[in-house]
Structures are given as structure tokens and as C-alpha cells.
Design a protein that fits this description.
about 400 residues; Aminopeptidase; Alpha-Beta Plaits; six-stranded mixed β-sheet; 10 helices
Length: about 400
């Protein structure tokens, strides 16, 4: 039996265990900075595999290792999730982890615990096959991604001193291979006005009017942002507006807006800031990139600037070509090589540190952050097999 067939046979053999493992992970609420219980469960699932190393690091990432080779492959799945939103929009309990009709149901099945359950089975397959290539494979259940993309990998690279040669990100890809996505940044603009009595507004400078004009100008800016043939168009929008005045009978002397900026290829932190600064140049306003500085569930305070660089690999990059070859060996057809619409940990892995990343993950990305999130068990099987064969073919 050829290797690809043997690997897929094992992934199929253990599909019920993969689904059960995912179900257990989904039943544990794990919002950002509250991942301790789910991390302990993931570690418990990996313990029987007798990996060469298994630990929880100072930030709370679960890290398992097979092999001692100089070349390093890492497979990443973040374990935190967003909240459920309006419960009325759900057709089932978000944390049931129910397995029915060929699906596992619940929050995190797609984004991104399904990837973790799949790579637990991958590790099982590699151990059963006696994996002995001159390669180190890390299995990473990471934290705090929903709060701050890539912060976990900043810690892994800078503090754990683990710097892979290639990373597979297990965010959902609809069965495709992804080789890039737009970057993003969070910008805050603060407006300072002058208060006056509401009966004589002409005596003051209304910060709400300043901010409102800026909002309309930012809306117009969105229409003229540059585009990339692969990643698409950059975008900008206002996601929050706050104002303050001495009373409801006084001109507002303070306003603040939050700007969500998505960056396509060729757009930079500096160019995006300059666009906003140009819009507010004639008023008293301050433009700044926000900083993330929060405590992990371990108690460690760790942070970074909320600028997440754009990245993409060329279609002929060795990491992409290996992924395509693995897909063809396992599934007998050629994959679509595409991009994500949202942001992932690769903003740090590739965007900052230049480590090649490809994406292959179970699930439909349109269900990420959405009600009625669910993943097809078959997707979990395919992912488990893909990661295992990639390790052999790298």
C-alpha cells in the first residue's frame, strides 16, 4: 500500500475519535484569555500519544513535538473563540459539541478547534507509522488569537525560541489551500473640541461634528483604496464612535472613533496612517495605532502593536507546491489555491518573521464567528491525513 493510502486509511479509522476529541473541546468555553480549561483538555488528548515533548508554555500555548530534525514544521490551531452573539440565531446549543448527521456542532468547530482535533489524530498517525524523517514537527494549540492575531507566535518565536521553517495554519479553508491574506490594523482617532452652552453652540467647537466629517471622508476613502489581483482591494470602515460633553446641554468637547483598516499588497502601516492624518489635518485630532497589552490566563502580561502585516506566498513557492502535491496524492484531484478573507496568526509568522505559511483547515470559513457553526467530520479526516502526509513529503 502506498503511503498516502495508508495515511488516509488511518485518518478514516480514527475519525470517530477525532470527532469525539473535537466535541470535548467545543464543550469547554474558551474565550480569549480564558483558555486554561480547554488547553488542559487538549494536553490530555495528546498525552497518550507519548510525544517526544509536550508542554504548556508561559503564555499558555500547548506545544507537542515529534522528532529531532533541524528542519521544523509547525501545525497551528488557536484554541480561543469569539462569543456566541444573539442566542436566538442559534438552532442548537453553541457548546453542545453534538455529533450528528456527519457534523460536529458548536462554537469553535470551524474557528479553530477542528484543526486541533485533526492534528491530534495526525500525531497519532505519525507515531503509529514510526515517523523517523530528519524533521521536527510541532503541534501548537495557541491562545489569544481572537484578541490579537499572531501574539501567541510572537511569544513562541521570541520567548520559546521555536522558529519553524514552514507552518501549516489550520484555519478553515473550505478544502482549499491558502497562500495569503490581507493585513489589518486598528487605528484610533481622538478629536478635541471646545465646550460651550448648548444655547450658543457657535461659541464652541463641536468634536462630534469634527469626527462625523472624518467618518464621511473615511467612507469615501474606502472607495479609492488600491487593489491587488490576488488579495483584492484594501478596505477601511468605522467600527465604533464615542463622544463626551460636560452635559447634555453643552457642545461636545471630545469624540473618538475606531477605524478598522484592511491592507492589501503594497499598502503599509505608514501609508494607511498618512491617509487618516490627511483627512483630519485641519482639526485638533490625534491618530494612533492601538497597542494590545493584556494578561494571558497564565497571568503573564504580554503585548504588541495592533498592526498585522499583509502577506502572501507566490504560487510556485516550495511550501505551496508541497501542499498541492500532498493534496493530489491524497484526493486524486488538484486543489484550488486561494486566500483567506480574514486575518490569521500568519500575520506574525509570515508577515513579521518571514516564515512561509500555507493554510489547510477543516470547515467552511463563512461559518467562522457565525451562528450555527459546524464542521463536517469528513473535513476533519481530510485534514488529519493532509498534515501527516505533508510531514512525510516536506
Amino acid at each position: 500500500m502506498i503511503l498516502a493510502d495508508k495515511i488516509y486509511e488511518l485518518a478514516e479509522k480514527y475519525k470517530d475519535d477525532t470527532a469525539e476529541n473535537l466535541s470535548k473541546l467545543v464543550k469547554i468555553k474558551s474565550f480569549s484569555r480564558e483558555e486554561e480549561a480547554v488547553q488542559q483538555e487538549l494536553k490530555r488528548q495528546m498525552e497518550p500519544l507519548k510525544l517526544d515533548e509536550l508542554k504548556i508554555d508561559g503564555l499558555g500555548n500547548v506545544i507537542g513535538r515529534i522528532g529531532h530534525g533541524k528542519k521544523i514544521l509547525a501545525i497551528d490551531a488557536h484554541m480561543d473563540t469569539v462569543d456566541i452573539g444573539n442566542m436566538d440565531n442559534w438552532e442548537f446549543s453553541p457548546f453542545s459539541g453534538k455529533i450528528e448527521g456527519g457534523y460536529v456542532l458548536g462554537r469553535g468547530t470551524v474557528d479553530q478547534k477542528g484543526g486541533a482535533a485533526s492534528f491530534v489524530t495526525t500525531a497519532r498517525i505519525l507515531k503509529e507509522l514510526g515517523f523517523d524523517k530528519d524533521l521536527t514537527v510541532y503541534f501548537v494549540g495557541s491562545v489569544m488569537e481572537e484578541d490579537c492575531d499572531g501574539l501567541c507566535w510572537k511569544y513562541i518565536i521570541e520567548e520559546d525560541r521555536i522558529k519553524p521553517d514552514i507552518v501549516i495554519c489550520t484555519e478553515p479553508t473550505n478544502g482549499n489551500i491558502c497562500r495569503g491574506h490581507r493585513g489589518r490594523m486598528e487605528i484610533e482617532v481622538t478629536f478635541r473640541g471646545v465646550s460651550a452652552h448648548g444655547s450658543a453652540p457657535e461659541r464652541g467647537k463641536n468634536a462630534i461634528y469634527m469626527a462625523s466629517k472624518a467618518c464621511l471622508d473615511i467612507k469615501a476613502l474606502n472607495e479609492r483604496l488600491r487593489s491587488d489581483p490576488f488579495l483584492g482591494k484594501g478596505s477601511v470602515t468605522i467600527t465604533d464612535f464615542f463622544s463626551r460633553s460636560p452635559s447634555l446641554c453643552a457642545v461636545a468637547d471630545y469624540a473618538k472613533i475606531h477605524v478598522d483598516r484592511r491592507l492589501t499588497w503594497g499598502e503599509t502601516k505608514e501609508s494607511a496612517l498618512a491617509e487618516i492624518e490627511e483627512i483630519v489635518k485641519d482639526v485638533r485630532a490625534e491618530v494612533q495605532i492601538l497597542q494590545y497589552d493584556e494578561r494571558a490566563y497564565t497571568g503573564l502580561r504580554y503585548g504588541m502593536e495592533k498592526y498585522y502585516p499583509t502577506w502572501k506566498l507566490p504560487p510556485d513557492h516550495a511550501a505551496v507546491k508541497t501542499g498541492v502535491a500532498v493534496y493530489e496524492s491524497l484526493f486524486g484531484s488538484s486543489p484550488m489555491v486561494d486566500k483567506w478573507t480574514f486575518s490569521t496568526n500568519a500575520v506574525t509568522i509570515t508577515g513579521i518573521y518571514g516564515i512561509p505559511t500555507i493554510g489547510f483547515g477543516p470547515g467552511d470559513e463563512t461559518l467562522a464567528h457565525a451562528p450555527n457553526e459546524r464542521v463536517v467530520v469528513k473535513d476533519l479526516v481530510n485534514a488529519s491525513a493532509f498534515y501527516a502526509l505533508y510531514a512525510y513529503q516536506l
